[in-house]
C-alpha cells in the first residue's frame, strides 16, 4: 500500500466515508479491483491501525490489539470500532469464525437487547438511530449481507427506525414481555391485562383476532384509551395472528437474551475492564432446549378430539378440536405419497416444531418415526456438521466458511487439552506435525 493510497484513505475517513465504500471508490478510479495494490484486509488493517493510534484509553487500545491479534490464529475474525471526538472508544463490534458459522446456519432470527446494567465505565448502549444503524450495517457486511427473517426488540423507537432503514425485508417483532409490562403501567383495568395477554399469544387467525379485540375493547369501554389505540395500530408487530407462517424459532420476547445475560453473569463482574469482558465472552456458549417444546406438543395430543377424516384426490384431510372448544376446528392436510403434513395452525412454519395436531395425524396413520419433512435441521445435533449439508453449485463459499469454523473449533479444543501436561503437549504436537506433513505431500502431488 503506497503513501498516496494511505493519504487518500485518511482524507476519505475524515469525511466519515465507510471503509467498504472507500475500497469500491478507489477500485473505480483505477478501472477495477484487480488494479488495486492492496487487498480488502490490507485496507481494514490500515484504517484500524490509524484509529487505534488515536485512541487515548489504554484499556480500549489493548482490547483492540487483542481482538485484531486473534486474526493471526483465526483468519475469519473481524473487529470494527469507532472513536469519539475526544479520541475515546465509541462502539465496538467483533466476530470470529465460529460466530460467523453459527449466524450462517441459525441467522433466521435476531434478538436485540438494548438494556444494560452499570459497569466500570458507567457507559450505556447509546440508543440512537446512528449507533443502531452502525451495528446493523456492520453485522450485514461481516455476515455476507444475510438479512434475518425477524428481529425482536424491546420496542426502542431508534432501533425500529434503524431496522426499517438497514433491514427493510426483515419483520420487526416487539417483545411480548415488555408490552405486557407497559400494559400494566398504562392501563389500570386489570381485566384488560388478561385480554391483552391472550391477544398477544393466542394462535388466532386474523379475523378471529379482530373479533376478539373489538368485542373485548367494547365490553371494557377502552375505545378512547390512547395507549390501547396506539398499541392496536402496530398490532402487526406483536399479535401472533399477524405473524403466523413467518419463521421466528419461538422468539416472542427478548427474554432469551436475558437468559443468556444471566448465564454470562457467572463469568463477568461490573468492575471488569473492556479487555476482561472480551476475554470472558470468548468462553461463553449457550444452547436452546428445543426438545422441551416438542415434548409439550406430543403431550398435547391427549387434549385433541377427532372430528373427521376425508380424502381429496391424494390428500387426506383430518379435522381436530380441543377439549372444551368444539367451535374451534383445526384442519391438517396429509399426503401419504411424499409424507408431507401441513397444519392450519402454522406452528411448523413459525417455530420449526410439529404441532400437537400433526402428532395426532401421525398417531392415526400409525407412524412410528417423525417424517424427514418435519425434522428441522436447526434443531438437530448435526446442524453444524458440514459433511451432511446439501450444497448447491453456488455454495462453495458457504461450505468453506462452515468447514473452516468446524476445523477451527476442533483444533482450539485440541490446543486447550494439549497444553495441560507435558505428555499431552508432545502427543498433540506430533499429531499436528504429521497432519501438516500429509497435507504438504497432498498439495505437492496435486500441483504436479
Structure overview:
- The chain is of the alpha/beta class and 448 residues long.
- Among the domains are: 176-243, no CATH class; 291-377, no CATH class; 386-447.
- It is built from 19 helices and nine strands.
- The strands form three sheets. The chain has a four-stranded antiparallel sheet, covered by helices on one side. Strands 3-4-5 form a three-stranded parallel sheet.
- A hairpin with a 2-residue loop joins strand 7 and strand 8 (325-335).
- It is globular and about 75 Å long.
- Keywords: Metal-binding, Zinc, Zinc-finger.
- This is SWIM-type domain-containing protein.
- Residues 328-366 form the SWIM-type domain.
Structural category: alpha/beta
Distance between the termini: 34 Å
Q: Order of strands side by side in the largest beta sheet?
A: 6-7-8-9
In sequence order, what are the helices and strands, one letter per element? HHHHEEHEHEHEHHHHHHHHEEEEHHHH
**Structural shape:** globular
Unreliable runs, pLDDT <50, ≥5 residues?
none
Number of helices: 19
How many beta-strand elements?
Answer: 9
* Biggest sheet architecture: 4 strands, antiparallel
Strand content: 5-15%
State mean pLDDT (0 to 100 scale): 80
Rg result: 27 Å
Share of residues in helices:
40-55%
Protein name: SWIM-type domain-containing protein
Keywords: Metal-binding, Zinc, Zinc-finger
Domain SWIM-type: 328-366
GO molecular function: zinc ion binding
Amino acid at each position: 500500500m503506497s503513501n498516496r493510497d494511505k493519504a487518500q484513505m485518511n482524507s476519505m475517513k475524515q469525511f466519515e466515508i465507510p471503509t467498504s465504500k472507500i475500497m469500491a471508490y478507489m477500485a473505480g478510479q483505477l478501472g477495477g479491483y484487480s488494479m488495486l495494490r492492496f487487498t480488502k484486509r490490507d485496507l481494514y488493517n490500515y484504517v484500524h491501525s490509524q484509529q487505534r493510534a488515536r485512541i487515548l484509553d489504554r484499556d480500549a487500545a489493548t482490547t483492540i490489539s487483542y481482538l485484531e491479534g486473534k486474526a493471526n490464529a483465526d483468519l475469519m475474525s473481524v473487529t470494527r470500532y469507532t472513536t469519539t471526538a475526544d479520541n475515546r472508544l465509541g462502539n465496538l463490534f467483533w466476530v470470529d469464525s465460529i460466530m460467523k458459522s453459527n449466524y450462517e446456519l441459525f441467522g433466521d432470527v435476531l434478538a436485540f437487547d438494548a438494556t444494560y446494567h452499570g459497569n466500570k465505565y458507567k457507559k450505556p448502549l447509546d440508543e440512537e438511530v446512528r449507533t443502531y444503524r452502525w451495528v446493523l450495517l456492520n453485522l450485514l457486511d461481516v455476515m455476507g449481507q444475510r438479512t434475518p427473517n425477524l428481529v425482536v426488540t424491546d420496542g426502542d423507537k431508534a432501533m425500529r427506525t434503524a431496522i426499517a432503514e438497514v433491514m427493510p425485508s426483515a419483520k420487526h417483532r416487539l417483545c411480548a414481555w415488555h408490552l405486557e409490562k407497559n400494559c400494566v403501567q398504562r392501563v389500570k383495568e386489570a381485566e384488560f391485562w388478561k385480554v391483552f395477554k391472550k391477544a398477544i399469544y393466542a394462535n388466532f387467525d386474523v379475523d378471529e383476532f379482530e373479533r376478539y379485540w373489538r368485542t373485548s375493547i367494547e365490553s371494557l369501554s377502552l375505545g378512547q384509551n390512547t395507549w390501547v389505540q396506539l398499541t392496536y395500530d402496530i398490532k402487526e408487530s406483536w399479535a401472533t395472528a399477524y405473524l403466523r407462517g413467518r419463521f421466528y424459532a419461538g422468539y416472542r420476547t427478548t427474554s432469551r437474551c436475558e437468559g443468556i445475560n444471566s448465564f454470562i453473569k457467572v463469568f463477568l463482574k461490573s468492575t471488569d475492564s473492556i479487555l476482561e469482558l472480551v476475554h470472558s465472552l470468548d468462553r461463553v456458549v449457550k444452547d436452546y432446549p428445543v426438545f422441551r417444546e416438542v415434548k409439550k406438543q406430543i403431550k398435547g395430543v391427549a387434549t385433541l378430539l377427532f372430528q373427521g377424516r376425508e380424502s381429496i384426490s391424494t390428500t387426506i384431510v383430518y379435522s381436530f378440536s380441543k377439549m372444551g372448544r368444539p367451535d374451534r376446528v383445526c384442519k391438517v392436510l396429509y399426503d401419504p405419497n411424499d409424507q408431507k403434513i401441513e397444519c392450519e395452525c402454522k406452528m411448523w412454519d413459525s417455530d420449526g416444531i410439529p404441532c400437537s395436531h400433526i402428532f395426532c395425524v401421525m398417531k392415526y396413520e400409525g407412524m412410528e418415526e417423525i417424517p424427514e419433512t418435519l425434522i428441522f435441521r436447526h434443531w438437530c445435533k448435526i446442524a453444524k456438521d458440514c459433511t451432511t449439508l446439501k450444497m448447491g453449485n453456488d455454495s462453495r463459499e458457504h461450505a468453506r466458511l462452515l468447514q473452516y469454523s468446524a476445523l477451527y473449533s476442533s483444533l482450539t479444543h485440541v490446543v486447550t487439552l494439549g497444553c495441560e501436561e507435558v505428555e499431552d503437549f508432545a502427543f498433540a504436537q506430533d499429531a499436528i506435525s504429521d497432519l501438516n506433513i500429509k497435507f504438504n505431500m497432498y498439495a505437492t502431488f496435486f500441483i504436479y
